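protein under study:
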Amino acid sequence: MAALGWLTPRRRSATARSVLAGEASAEAARKSSQEAEEAQEAQLAEEEPEFPVIGDVKAAAFFDLDNTVMQGAALFHFGRGLYKRKFFETRDLAKFAWQQAWFRLAGVEDPEHMQDARDSALSIVKGHRVAELKTIGEEIYDEYMAERIWPGTRALAQAHLDAGQKVWLVTAAPVEIAQVIARRLGLTGALGTVAESVDGVYTGKLVGEPLHGPAKAEALRALAAAEGLDLSRCAAYSDSHNDIPMLSLVGHPYAINPDAKLRKHAREKDWRLRDYRTGRKAAKVGIPAAAGVGAVAGGTAAAIAFSRRRR
């Protein structure tokens, strides 16, 4: 018994020393990890110039809409809302549903599908008043679009706004719908496809052509001239290779949720990449990387990154 009594304190002492060693090791690991993170942040701050530049009134940001700011295509969501309001029949809805399903699965814009969607929409709204469609657009945004906004991309747009810059949507969607989305997101405005109207009533025709591909680049040139912007100091964001003309026009191009062709082009040109659809890391550090991965995490991380840079 005496021997056991002699061993017991020693066992307790050994246990206490083990706990102390473990706690010390964990604290050292935590400090090392924190120091590594701080060193990495300092390195990134040195490598990356502050962007967007606060107070640069010659700069602005341009965001594609479909699959960049919002999951899916605005035109298809709009068609869904019009069907609910009995603007067209079930067979037309099936067509819209197929186009939207294909778009979401493929993640790219097919010119034939998009043209079919536009033709369908034009025939549906023909004879309706512009004011009526604007009111319906507000309702459709709440019903189908609000929950599909990518928080990460939304955070990027807000960063430009916080820097005192104007932010525009640039989309092939009807300009009335684009303007609703821009206003709801607190953006400056929107460039979109213009449908012809006479005395406030849609004729079923377009003014010019859809705002798609090279037409977006022309829209940016025209807006930059009117607003006194320096495109070399502007940023543009898109998911589609169809927008390479627009992205190539600005000094700060970003590939967001890129299709295969845009991803390849962006890597060749050393553009920044960000994909909110998966857990893939950004190919380049900077704002899109700081915006995080996925939904809520995206917006939160971007806000943290910008608050750090601005202090």
